[in-house]
């Protein structure tokens, strides 16, 4: 059940994130809360609690400071990517300090990129963040795919990383085709007029 919830939120963020900033904020906040709690093997109830707190908090903060929403969404999705990177880089038990450094560094970098490049950066960041949630969700659905959730050294880390890149690229392509107006992209039909 928990894997399916994360999987569904990840699909929404990865393939529809740029379509609605409200949905992107809620999904990114949910994912961030979930992935950070999941780094430390929290119970299912704690995972959902952290995810819901993350979703509500991110939406409230973004609503209050909408002027900085691209910066904030970039930071949230960057933190999700940072949590996934921290998990891939640390097979086995995760170190709190190293995880915090990686998550913070990626979140700050992503926030500045999103603030500077707006929709184009958010397109990449929602695709990357959603892809990390999809893999985490898939990894929790069955033992055969558990390596996607907690990759150990070797082929599991490589496979998990390659799948993350492929899913993020697929999300980027889908969002780019679904929302060209939000990205300022001229489609063939518009360019003929």
Q: What can you see in these coordinates?
A:
By secondary structure, this protein is mostly helical. The protein has nine helices and no strands. The longest helix has 46 residues.
| Coarse morphology | globular
Total number of strands? 0
Secondary-structure content class: mainly alpha
> What is the end-to-end distance?
49 Å
List segments where confidence is low: pLDDT < 50 over at least 5 consecutive residues. none
- Total helical segments: 9
Q: Strand portion, in percent?
A: under 5%
Which H/E pattern describes the elements?
HHHHHHHHH
Rg, please?
16 Å
The share of residues in helices is: over 70%
Q: Return the average pLDDT rounded to an integer.
A: 85
Keywords: Membrane, Transmembrane, Transmembrane helix
Protein name: DUF4203 domain-containing protein
Features:
193 residues; 0% strand; 9 helices; mainly alpha; globular
Protein topology:
Blueprint: H1 2-16, H2 21-38, H3 44-64, H4 69-89, H5 96-141, H6 146-149, H7 155-178, H8 180-183, H9 188-192
Helix pairs in contact: 1-2, 1-5, 1-7, 2-3, 2-4, 2-5, 4-5, 5-7
Keywords: Membrane, Transmembrane, Transmembrane helix
Protein name: DUF4203 domain-containing protein
Transmembrane segments: 43-61, 68-90, 96-114, 121-138, 158-174
Summarize the structure.
The chain has nine helices and no strands. The protein is mostly helical.
